[in-house]
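A reminder before we start the practical. When you read a complex entry, don't treat the lines as separate problems. The point of joint prediction is that each chain is placed relative to the others, so the output describes one connected object in space. Small molecules and nucleic acid strands, if listed, are placed in the same frame. In the example below there are three entries. Take a minute to note the order of the lines before looking further.
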Amino acid sequence: MDWTRILTNVAGEFFAPTTAAYALAAVGLNIHFGLTGLLNMGQAGFMLLGAYGFAIATIAGWPLWAAVLIAIAAATIFALILGIPTLKLRGDYLAIVTIAAAEIVRLVGRSTALTELTGASSGLRGNQYKDTFQDASPFDDGTWALGPFEYAVNASNSWWIRIVGWVVVGLACWLVWLLIRSPWGRVLKGIREDEDAVRSLGKNVYSYKMQALVLGGVIGSLAGILYVLPRAVQPDSMGRSMTFFIWTILLLGGAATVFGPVLGSIIFWAVLALVKLTLRDVVPTTFLRSEQIEQFGWIIVGVALMLLIIFRPQGILGDKKELAINAH
Amino acid sequence: MPTEPSPAATDARAAVAAALRDVPHVPGAPKPDPVLIADDVRRMFGGVNAVDVDHVEVQRGAITALIGPNGAGKTTFFNLLTGFDKPNSGKWTFDGRSLGGVAAARVARAGMVRTFQLTKALNRMTVMENMRLGATAQPGENLFAALVPAVWRPREKAITEQAEELLARFKLDTKRDDFAGSLSGGQRKLLEMARALMAKPQMIMLDEPMAGVNPALTQSLLGHIQALRDDGMTVLFVEHDMHMVRHISDWVVVMTEGRIVAEGPPDSVMNNPAVIDAYLGAHHDTDLGDDALLDDAVLEQLRTEDEEAR
Amino acid sequence: MRSAVLDPGGTTTPPLARRIAALLLLALTSVTLLLVATPARAQGPVASATAACVADAATGCIVGTLRTEAGEPVVGAVLNVVGPQGELTATSDATGRWSVAVTEPGEYEVTLDVATIPAGEALRDPANNPRTVAVGLGASAAALFPLGAPAAGGGGGDTGDEPSDSPTTGTDGGAAAVPTTPGSTGSGVTAARVAQLTVNGLVFGTLLALASVGLSLIYGTTGLSNFAHGEQVSLGGILAYVGTQLVGLPLIPSAIIAVALGAATGWLQDAGLWKPLRRRGVGMIQQMIVTIGLSMAISYVFQFFFGAGPLRIVTDTPTSVSIGPVRITTTTLWSLAIAAIVLGGVAYFLLGTRAGRATRAVADNPALAAASGISVNGMIRIVWTLGAGLAALGGVLIGLYFGATSWYSGGALLLLMFAAVTLGGLGAAFGALAGSIVIGLVVELSSLWIPTDMRYASALVILILVLLVRPQGILGRATRVG
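Here is the predicted structure of the whole assembly.
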């Protein structure tokens, strides 16, 4: 077994663009669930919408900044549409509506009726929309190696997307760090605990929940852009499973913490890569086909999610005394 | 010491008593200086009138007790007045402003702050965070201002000072950094009341402040409620235990089956046949208030225990 | 929502850990036994999988067929594929087909090694080699290299005539996993079509009701939104498939065994997982997230053993009968009759029997029910068993109705079940029945106006709209706040 190759690949997952995208999506979900107690089961919908908004605007010839703004606007409108009917209702309604809404985005996006806009189920190819992002890079084209990690500087799965991705993740963490310590974050924490109590103190709970939903959703849409930049916009790869992975990441790292989502994402992808690569090397393909190894990985994720939420709902970084898994 | 009536307290109580002297002891009686006036407030649950109040006024600066047997609709009436439930019909004004159909948060901002029967201390926040949350006019509660600490730090400092004063008054200052969930039931009641006071309300509405509180702390709570009145605040509180009420309230409103059946000063209400009927008729087993329980000797004993407990 | 706060002083209790470990072990053992008992199926694909790639939720395929200008397959041509997964190669087989399995979605650059194509053949569009295709997991993307004389006008016509990537399956997709029902193709609003779609909607709604009534009962008695209920439905279909196709039983005994085993999993789940969690005081939201993890684990276990493709419970073509303008298969008529009888039985159980009334009492007020001498845990056990059994029956009948079942057939319906339950009022069993019929009709009739592949979305839009105007559902009633 080639441990060097396996460990190098696993280490590559630590700072892969996908890891950054999932970390960012989990930061958004953390604002919903960790800070406010909102059960958003449709974070992948925000991501897909952001990805579509960015890609379609870019293909239409819009500059980079405008395409990003379109993604943000799409997520904002989506959050408002979801929040208006549900934020006054019980928490499980929001869960059902967000998961349904994310599914609607995916079903509409993959529908043949919109082929010209969204490319239907085959989606939008990356090189249709990644030029503006790659052109924004200050570096020269080519490849560059750091130790065993060699990637293109600007193209597709590049150093450039890694740098931008992790800078955005860092900024999002800084934002959460500021907000958690602010009076605004205190109101959210109160809402997570008992929204009636906060209402009785004169705070407009509905408005705060809406602000949290929009903010977390916008961060989710940026994560969507990050996620699709090194690949394609594929509606079926951004479905319910993606949301559940983000939840696992958040609960693994620790909800309501600043760095929990980042740590969770790194561990999630590294462990998954380790398990799959090792199995691929150890288990003969006559016993387990390669797709069965993939499926085995996801089975582990499902079981890990169950065990985590039962035995360590505060995750790695969380404080059990402070975390209430409450629905609003 | 809140349980010892101070001269100011006696004055305040006497002044309120004087103001209410000529008010007739009938349901819906008009008050000389009402802060809250409610008309035709009704709330149905599955065809049953949970609340059916024709008219009621609450005197400014007085402690008014809303009493009645279990299921009389007191809490529902409270929920309606504070915007936590919507009536089928009715309107009410608070300090001249109409508050019918206004959302709970805006009712609170209008100066009418409530507490809950089942204490809603925010258990996973510290006592100080609970207190700060009660404050108003904190610019940092705006999402964008929150990002610039310089904008909200000065106000935060003022809020913290105000909170520390209140905590000292409610003898919670030593618990400042403890999680609210670690406090005793009575301390949580005190915290909830102190937190409500952070907003400097005109009127405070307490839903069964004495429920589930041990006798020693009951005395201290009663003292705090009287002190609020002495500071000029209007207090409306729900209670179904009458002997708690008679020692501190200036005026008593009796509800049963959603209606107001009697009003008056405590002593007069206790002897009102409608009240006795309401209690005995509906709930024969309800303790009408065995005053032996709260005679002076017992009170003295409780007070001593209270002292020793500290 | 019932109290869903974590117990701050709660410490991990080893018995629960052991119990869960035991449960997982049990589950794993049973599926392993299943695997051992069915070597033909489980290992069948391996033999043929040397070249052909099967797309599933974790795998994407890049495929193509190479033919000479004369239409003969090109054998032994070598293709290089470079992308997120690194460098891969493929060789075309005797039919000219080649495929590459990727587990990392994204863009891949496919290069045809022109040195390996037969002499005298050339690429029709040399500018298109290498070409880039985007592939997602669960989809196949085609990279076609037409051979022949270079097209006139250079590369002007390289797009349009042949899509560079045309996915064939989308197993993660709800709509794609379920074949189109008879009569729903075609267009235009005609009376006959409306009649056909209405009947389809009623059938689909009735079958959906079998699944959603169980979901609603479980929610009603325990407060739990069970995201793994879809997998209970898939389980029924898959067990029936195992019975008919792998064990060789006739359909009816196989279906009965599937339902019985389905119900048994409900009993086991409550005994081994949910009851210990309730006793431990695990909050409702936590339990809901447990169901999400369970749903993920079970669905991939299905995929692990049975693959991502459709599984046909019966292989013979069903016979159809025509009633006026409406065509319906005899199997569907029987299914409808069975579903109606079973739903009637459930209604009788809830309204007419002591146990059923006790169940409703628990749903209404568990504390009061317990005080009246009803065993709350006993009732919850009955509800889990009943709900899982109903879901399994729904899975069998839905599998028959759509012609095939799959690892995802229940998962695709989960949101429609939630929509039905929410429409009917969360926790109201009869509401779930009414809600299912509405959802069935909405799904089928909406294809009169919107593309068929968006019809599931229409049901979900209805769900959101209903919440906007009547959050307590069609049959639910407003409850006292606070």
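Discuss with your neighbour: Chain A has a mean pLDDT of 89. What might explain this?
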